[in-house]
Amino acid sequence: xxxIDTHNHLYLEDFDPEQETLADAARSSGIDTLLLPNVxxxxxxxxxxxxxxxxxxxxxMMGLHPTSVDEHYSDTxxxxxxxxxxxxxxxxxxIGIDLYWDxxxxxEQIIVFEEQLKWSIDLNLPVAIHTRDAYxxxxxxxxxxxxxxxxxxxxxxxxxPADLEEIKKLENFKLGINGVITFKNSMLAETIxxxxxxxxxxxxxxxxxxxxxxxxxxxxxxxxWKTAEKVANTYGLxxxxxxxxxxxxxxxxxxxxxxxx
Length: 261
Fold this sequence. Notes:
By secondary structure, the protein is α/β, with parallel strands linked by helices. The protein is 38% helix and 14% strand. It has helices at residues 19-29, 44-53, 73-81, 106-123, 135-145, 161-168, 188-192, 224-235, 239-253; strands at residues 3-5, 31-36, 58-60, 92-98, 127-132, 152-154, 173-177, 200-202. It has a 5-stranded parallel sheet. Helix 6 links the parallel strand 6 and strand 7 (173-177). The model has no long low-confidence stretch (mean pLDDT 97).
């Protein structure tokens, strides 16, 4: 089995100095690809360094996370965009709108999100979307910029059945499922049963959202197998079928070189 983790932050300081050990463990477990979305200007060098150390395994995205948007958003966005012509990226991310922590910069978050959606259209790259307490706002932006021209994944999907119905109308968007699906009180498994496995990709969001039985600990790449097992159970598939189907979904979406279904 060759599993793709479509959303991982192994480059963050949370993993120092264990990146190499954790990457080797991931590959030994059957994971052959990590997709690494950026956070902001402070994380770009670390992300690039990790990808350079693990070519054909770790692939970067470029974007500005909504919780990093502030009054200096215009300058930060220009600096972020300047990296797009300097190397290859598999997607634009992590981008979106987050109204859980702070609504102060909602207007600015929308401006930044919509501009990055335009980047994805111009470069024909998928987007990795972060949305927290903001599904209506995110969906409005997508439709405004051009739902038919955009493609991507709703990273860490935890939306309601109603949110899912709206996303299902977006033909070129998938759901990123991580450890949340294993949580005792989560209704995520019941929700995603209302869509097909071809709408699903797997992710960790490491170091965040570790699955049961590791909940509350630092999430690590290999823990994605617990998520894969739960998704397999949700759809009545074998683990191998789940890995194969979600791999195909990821490769249909992201520009990942040298990878086959």
